[in-house]
Amino acid sequence: MFSAWNFFLFGLLSASQSLAHHTPRSEHELEIQRGLQAAAYHCAPAVESFTASRKRAWAQRALAGNPNVPGYQQLFSSETYGDIADAPHNSPHNPHDSDDDETFMKCTPISDTHIQNNTCVLAPEVTEGPYYHDQGHPIRQNIAEYQDGLLLLLDIGVIDVEACKPLPNVLVDIWQANATGHYAGHPVPAPQFINEKPATTGLRKGLLPPFPRTLHAETFLRGAWPTDKNGVVQFTSIYPGYYTGRATHVHTKVFPEWQVNPENNTYKAGRLSHVGQFFFDEELNMVVDKMFPYFTNPIKDTIGRTRNTQDSLNIFADSHGPEGQYNPVFKVHLLGGVVSQGLVAYITMGVNASASYDNFLKG
Ligand SMILES: *[C@@H]1O[C@H](CO)[C@@H](O)[C@H](O)[C@H]1NC(C)=O
Ligand SMILES: *[C@@H]1O[C@H](CO)[C@@H](O)[C@H](O)[C@H]1NC(C)=O
Ligand SMILES: *[C@@H]1O[C@H](CO)[C@@H](O)[C@H](O)[C@H]1NC(C)=O
Ligand SMILES: *[C@@H]1O[C@H](CO)[C@@H](O)[C@H](O)[C@H]1NC(C)=O
């Protein structure tokens, strides 16, 4: 991502990538992951109906027979969290919500999707990226700001793997790189990290240290929004670009408890129950690689884009590992007739709503 850094990263990365598959996660982490995946398996039918009904909703609203890109104003509200009267947050689950969800799940026929086992359940991984932030992101659905790129609508379902039910009213925080691989707030590393080298051991092997934000005014491609009563949250964004060592991805955290900072419409983090990342199919990444402004990525002709299977954090490979199989890859549909008209990407996250993870990097 930082061109000056790419030169020394180049040599180190090839070494770390070949070793990445042999890097064990801690026993504790594996145990958590196994437990959650086991729990997620029995949710597969619930996830299937959850996804099917979301697809139908999309088809009705935007996709079927409409060759034009819908104005996303029509799809997603542009209001901020503060505009929503009596918006619920930070409260225990309302029993009425649970009733609704039960009805929602039971009434949805499983017909138009074919999901094998828990294919679309995203089990967690607890590895965070270096572009953290110690303050909560803006509470908003449209995170694109002025960033140039391919329109990407995200439809993220959250399901509690303990109850196999969609989770309403949890805050889903996402952040991602822009089309040329930069994160808001990190144009350069903080001075004390200028000479840092990627870690050579441990879970952060091949990665640079976490960089605190240096430009606090930048907020592009960062935002959080609570799930609705059906456990779904939608965002308007752009397709992420790539940077050194990482496959194209979107970060996420899920907070069952949080507070609003009304003065600046950001959130104050409470209990954290999930940290994860979403990926895209290689075939789609290859198509986007050729589009403007993605092909202007400064590392295009040097290191190039890291493939899913080469990801230095090994997240993609882990998802297909012996602990089970989960699928951290968005299912993507075209909004119009061609890719350049935009995409809608679905995923369902399996989270443990009662878990509490250490928010040590706060991002
Ligand atoms: C899903 O996969 C798990 C682990 O491989 C297996 O135990 C379970 O029986 C599978 N469930 C179905 C419905 O195939
Ligand atoms: C991505 O962000 C960086 C840093 O703010 C900026 O220099 C670059 O122009 C942005 N990329 C695009 C395609 O706008
Ligand atoms: C928003 O306001 C809160 C509470 O005053 C403060 O702690 C936080 O740093 C502010 N966030 C930003 C991004 O300014
Ligand atoms: C969910 O988290 C709770 C609290 O940490 C834990 O007791 C429980 O075993 C977890 N459930 C699964 C399926 O991992």
UniProtKB/TrEMBL annotation:
<keyword id="KW-0732">Signal</keyword>
<feature type="domain" description="Intradiol ring-cleavage dioxygenases">
    <location>
        <begin position="128"/>
        <end position="255"/>
    </location>
</feature>
<dbReference type="Pfam" id="PF00775">
    <property type="entry name" value="Dioxygenase_C"/>
</dbReference>
<dbReference type="GO" id="GO:0008199">
    <property type="term" value="F:ferric iron binding"/>
</dbReference>
<dbReference type="GO" id="GO:0016702">
    <property type="term" value="F:oxidoreductase activity, acting on single donors with incorporation of molecular oxygen, incorporation of two atoms of oxygen"/>
</dbReference>
<dbReference type="InterPro" id="IPR000627">
    <property type="entry name" value="Intradiol_dOase_C"/>
</dbReference>
<dbReference type="InterPro" id="IPR015889">
    <property type="entry name" value="Intradiol_dOase_core"/>
</dbReference>
<feature type="signal peptide">
    <location>
        <begin position="1"/>
        <end position="20"/>
    </location>
</feature>
<protein>
    <recommendedName>
        <fullName>Intradiol ring-cleavage dioxygenases domain-containing protein</fullName>
    </recommendedName>
</protein>
